[in-house]
Design brief:
- The chain is an alpha+beta fold.
- The protein folds into 3 domains: 2-96, 3-Layer(aba) Sandwich (Rossmann fold); 122-197, ATP-grasp fold, A domain (Dna Ligase, domain 1, 2-Layer Sandwich); 203-428, ATP-grasp fold, B domain (D-amino Acid Aminotransferase, Chain A, domain 1, 2-Layer Sandwich), CATH 3.30.470.
- The strands form 6 sheets. Strands 12, 15, 18, 20, 23 and 25 form a 6-stranded antiparallel β-sheet that branches.
- The longest helix is centred in the middle third of the chain and has 22 residues, at 254-275.
- It holds the Pfam family GARS_N.
- It is an enzyme of class 6 (ligase).
């Protein structure tokens, strides 16, 4: 079988590796060393170019693939997966219409309220910066202010009124940052900013596969978004992740997992009703366990998260078979075999990321992959290109190191793995990932007590200062 993998990051490296029993072709904007390893070993072909529907159409015409696999969100928003469907080729990837569940945060919130999906937050959307700034400066409660659409995790600001005497100053500062937040999403005819009620609790993600009739939930994962140790610094695409043991995380129980899957399942059904198209591919709820609802939706993915994919995919046997079954509509007969051991992922980035991509670009890196694999870990290549037999950073997360097993033992192996990586620039990583389990278990117990009490009283999701139709007064 000939499979065309679209995308150039660590997530696509993980997807390509899971498909290595087939002939793998690839399209990306630069040569990813990990993807190239798979392409070469399966005697496929690597195509360089901008990932657009037009470019994909040309490659489809040239190689006539049996299946397509789309990794990143932007090609889904552009309708790349639809090009395969036009040619009658099975594809793992949401259609352009269905990918709106991720592309538009406002549409996702509206959908949850229309179909009364649990875990929904109250919100208000703004088309002008002036309206948003005025609302933020006048409203009295705690808020999360975000770009109204997908912006790669950028631009999110939170204001919490714990200290009332600081309220006015904090609001004025937040109102001034509205222009920056709104600049991250500027799609014509769409709102620019969304304001949501602020919630607190441990975060986690549930991914599921959907073939249009069957929905298969996968093991939970959690990513660590802040750039520096102890969860401080600017938000990134994710500096690492954990998954397991089993299907859960140490701080999420089975009832919460089931409730989360119910949310994702109802969301898929609602999306299909609105768009009139079957949902085929991956969907994920990025969740927070809160005292307001229990499992609560922060946002949706219309694809696999990154670095969550690097934590989940290596734990699932024959994952490539699941991708094929999803794309071809045969997921109902799938057998999901999960390694019970947890996984730990550390992202390695050049100095400068995420605030100065120019500073983080153009640096040479050398890595002894066989040595890393010898000690029981693996490497997925991200924002790093193979150029004239050298590995050169592209400005974002360059590598994702992955290890399965006890978290503490995996942390020791990952530290050893770092000794096999050299660069002409300082490399940054977070070695606290996988070490904050106890803290998160304690946090989960607090919010669990609150939401279970609310459930008994029949007040899940009720906030006194928010109107019942999803708007904020």
């Amino acid at each position: 079988m000939k499979i065309l993998v679209v995308g150039d990051g660590a997530r696509e490296n993980a997807l390509a590796k899971s498909l290595s029993s087939h002939k793998v072709f690839a399209l990306s904007s630069y040569i990813n060393p990990g993807i190239k390893e798979v392409v070469d070993s399966t005697q496929g072909e690597y195509f360089l170019g901008e990932i657009t529907p037009e470019e994909v159409r040309k490659i489809i015409s040239r190689i006539n693939p049996d299946m397509g696999v789309i990794g990143p969100e932007d090609p889904l928003f552009r309708g790349v997966s639809d090009e395969f469907r036009k040619e009658g080729i099975p594809v793992f990837g949401a259609s352009k219409k269905n990918a709106r569940i991720e592309e538009s945060k406002v549409w996702a919130r509206w959908l949850m309220w229309k179909y009364e999906i649990p875990g929904r937050l109250r919100y208000k959307a703004f088309s002008t910066m002036e309206e948003a700034a005025k609302f933020i400066s006048e409203y009295g409660g705690s808020l999360a202010v975000k770009p109204a659409g997908q912006a790669g995790g950028k631009g999110v600001k939170v204001i919490a009124d714990i200290q009332a005497y600081l309220s006015r100053d904090k609001r004025q500062a937040m109102a001034k940052s509205v222009n920056e937040i709104g600049s991250y999403y500027n799609k014509e005819g769409e709102p620019k900013i969304i304001v949501e009620e602020k919630v607190d609790g441990p975060e986690y993600t549930l991914h599921a596969l959907s073939d249009g009739s069957t929905i298969l939930p996968l093991p939970l994962a959690q990513d660590y978004k802040n750039a520096y140790q102890d969860g401080i610094g600017p938000e990134t695409g994710g500096m690492g992740s954990i998954s397991g043991p089993g299907f859960l995380l140490p701080f999420i129980n089975q009832e919460e997992y089931d409730g989360t899957f119910d949310i994702v399942r109802k969301t898929v059904s609602a999306v299909e009703k609105e768009t009139g198209e079957s949902y085929t591919g991956a969907i994920a709820g990025q969740m927070m366990l809160t005292g307001l609802w229990g499992p609560t939706v922060i946002e949706y993915y219309s694809r696999f998260g990154d670095p969550e994919a690097s934590a989940i995919i290596p734990r699932i046997q024959d994952f490539g078979d699941l991708i094929e079954r999803t794309a071809t509509g045969h997921l109902s007969n799938a057998k999901l075999r999960v390694d019970e051991r947890p996984s730990l992922v550390w992202a390695v980035s050049p100095l400068g990321y995420p605030l100065d991509r120019k500073l983080a670009s153009g640096h040479k890196v050398s890595i002894d992959v066989p040595k890393i694999r010898e000690i029981g870990c693996d490497v997925f290549f991200g924002s790093i290109a193979l150029e004239e037999n050298s590995l050169v950073t592209k400005g974002s997360r360059a590598l994702e190191l992955v290890c399965l097993g006890d978290f503490e033992e995996s942390r020791r192996k990952l530290m050893k793995s770092l000794s096999f990586i050299e660069s002409d620039v300082k490399l940054i990583y977070r070695n606290d990932i996988g070490s904050t389990i106890l803290e998160q278990e304690e946090k989960a117990e607090i919010v669990r007590y609150t939401y279970t009490s609310r459930k008994k009283r029949g007040t899940l999701g009720v906030s006194a200062d928010w109107s019942p139709n999803g708007g904020l007064w």
